[in-house]
Specification:
This protein has about 240 residues and is an alpha/beta fold. It has 8 helices and 11 strands. It has a single domain, classed as Acetylglutamate kinase-like (Carbamate kinase). The longest helix has 25 residues. Bound molecules: uridine-5'-diphosphate. The site of uridine-5'-diphosphate has 22 residues, from helix 2 and helix 3.
Length: about 240
């Protein structure tokens, strides 16, 4: 069994072509790929979902809000996204569990590591909501931290802005930027390449947890990434 953590940003659930905070057709596209990949077998999947389509703590803090309060709003946003994703994945016949880092009994199970692992072993897609439950983080760091905790072999970081991996420079600003197939954590840090948040990158480096960065929206890409194919860029 390959056990992986997929990091989906909240904005990946929105869509550039609609004003919806959560675009049902985009969520369905992702859910279909996830449930098809699970049906093939050999895969245990946990998803960490962000909340940037709804609220980012930093936005409120910049407008003068208390940062910890604003971050709580962001974490609650991830729970909304998690429920949307749960519904969509289950509509494709794959059982799921949402586990929240902030206790909310009527909405989701509390996060308990051993229980999460049991769900994975039973073939359920586990969706981690509310990040780590602590302010001053984004969901990149819980993606890495939960991956380490449940002993996943890789963090799959899906992008949605049309950039299909890690480049030497921003490919949208410099068309001559080159894409890496493989890059080390040290190079990512030395060149300040924005793969994930710095906290998440250093965590993955310290814990020898590879990250694969790939384009979530390109046809068949999510399935390929979940199948362990070499799409995008591997950071190790
Ligand atoms: N957040 C937090 N602690 C966590 C995870 C998330 O405080 O462990 C808050 C933070 O305010 C963040 C927001 O939740 O801005 C939404 O998450 P994120 O920005 O990572 O969403 P994404 O960019 O992935 O959509």
């Amino acid at each position: 069994m390959r056990r992986v953590v997929l990091k989906l940003s909240g904005e990946a659930l929105a869509s550039s072509s609609s004003v919806e905070t959560i675009d049902a057709s985009v969520v369905d596209f992702l859910a279909r790929a996830i449930s098809n990949s699970m049906a093939v077998g050999g895969l245990e999947l946990a998803v960490v979902v962000g909340g940037g389509n709804i609220w980012r703590g930093a936005t409120g803090a910049m407008a003068g809000m208390n940062r910890a309060n604003s971050d709580l709003m962001g974490m609650l946003g991830t729970v909304i996204n998690a429920l949307a994703l749960q519904d969509a994945i289950e509509s494709h016949g794959r059982p799921t569990r949402v586990m929240s880092a902030i206790n909310m009994d009527q909405v989701a199970e509390p996060y308990i590591r051993r229980r999460a692992v049991r769900h994975l072993e039973k073939g359920r897609v586990v969706i981690f909501a509310a990040g780590m439950g602590n302010p001053y983080f984004t969901t990149d760091t819980p993606a890495a931290q939960r991956a380490a905790e449940i002993e996943a072999e890789v963090v799959l970081k899906g992008t949605h802005g049309g950039v299909d991996g890690v480049y030497s420079e921003d490919p949208k600003k410099n068309p001559d930027a080159t894409k890496y197939d493989v890059i080390t954590f040290d190079e990512v840090l030395a060149k300040d390449l924005r793969v994930m948040d710095l906290t998440a990158i250093t965590f993955c480096k310290d814990n020898e947890l590879p990250i694969r960065v790939f384009d979530l929206m390109a046809p068949d890409n999510l399935r390929r990434a979940l199948a362990g194919e070499a799409v995008g860029t591997l950071v190790k």
